[in-house]
Amino acid sequence: MNTLGKIFVFAVMIMSVVFMSFAIAIFSSHTNWQKESERLATELEESQAERQAKESELTKLNEQIAASEKDREQVVAKLETALQQKDVELADLKKKRDAEISDLDKDIKELAEAKDERDAAEKLVSELREEIHGLQENLKGSVNRGAELAAELHQAESDLAMATERKKQLEQQVSNARVVLQQNGLSLKRPQTVIPVVGGVVTAVADDLVEVSIGSDDGLQAGHELEVFRADEYLGRLRVVSVKPDRAVVRVLKDFARGIVQRGDRVATRLKLDS
Q: Could you tell me how far CA 27 lies from the centroid of its own chain?
């Protein structure tokens, strides 16, 4: 039941109470009916006037209710519009939040990658430090070795200067000796037929070729012959094929072979050479 119905019920109740009062008054009084009728007519007019006032008030209330309903509808429309706007704003905020979360996840991933890169860089720096330390130690050793080599080079230069000076002196002496020999009809060259008295050992054997431990520095020349022996056993004769400063290659002369030549056997240009 709406407000208008309540008002009508209230008005009907008032009218009922009024008519009931009239009835009771008529019933309870035995006065002049004409006066009573006039009085009732007056009360009826008053009641009708009051009813009209109530109806007028009811109309105003209905108008106010209608205005209130219209205002309410306007307020509801405004609220619905505001609610829709808030829904749009909420959707935008949700999208923005999702975008920020995505950016945050990306930043976290980049941060993790940066951390891994930093750890790798720190490991590389540590390895480089160790390598640099090792290089510094090597450099220190190289510097020390360089100083030693510089000292040795300085000593070698001093020795070379002394040797150069000594060479000049010896060359001058040889030149003077050559002049003296030429004045006496002699020469510095060693005759090819002279065989030096030297001895050595067999260092290698290959078929009829043998390598010995003496060479041109000992005065040995190609064509010279050597005797080979083991203790007191004579093994044969060898002829020089090629010569180097510290060794020579000789061939076994089969006509003089008395045994098999082995590594470690003694050789000499004279059998009576002391071992």
A: 117
Is 207 inside a domain boundary? yes
Q: Is the pLDDT of residue 193 over 60?
A: no
Question: Closest by alpha carbon to 238, among 256, 255, 225, 220?
Answer: 225
C-beta separation of 50 from 42 below 8 A? no
- Does some domain include residue 129? no
Q: State which of 66, 83, 100 marks the end of a domain.
A: 83
- Residue 233 is part of a domain; what is its CATH number? 2.40.10.410
- Would you say 250 and 210 are in contact if contact means Cβ atoms under 8 Å apart? yes
Tell me the residue range of the domain where 229 lies.
Answer: 199-268
In a domain, 263, yes or no: yes
For residue range 140-165, list pLDDT tens digits in order: 877 888 788 888 888 878 778 887 88
Per cent of the chain over pLDDT 90 is 19
Question: CA-CA distance, 32 to 45, in Å (whole number)?
Answer: 20
∠ CA 91-94-100, nearest 5°, is 145
Per mean pLDDT, which of 74-78, 95-99, 235-239 is the most reliable?
235-239
- The number of distinct structural domains making up the chain is 2
Closest by Cα among 227, 215, 218 to 259: 227
pTM of the complete model = 0.33
- Report the 10 Å Cβ neighbour count for 212: 26
DSSP assigned state of 100: H
SS3 54: helix
Domain boundary pick from 26, 52, 83 = 83
Asked, for residue 78, whether it belongs to a domain, the answer is yes
- Alpha carbon distances (Å) from 74 to 68, 82, 83, 162, 198: 10, 12, 14, 124, 139
pLDDT of residue 275: 43
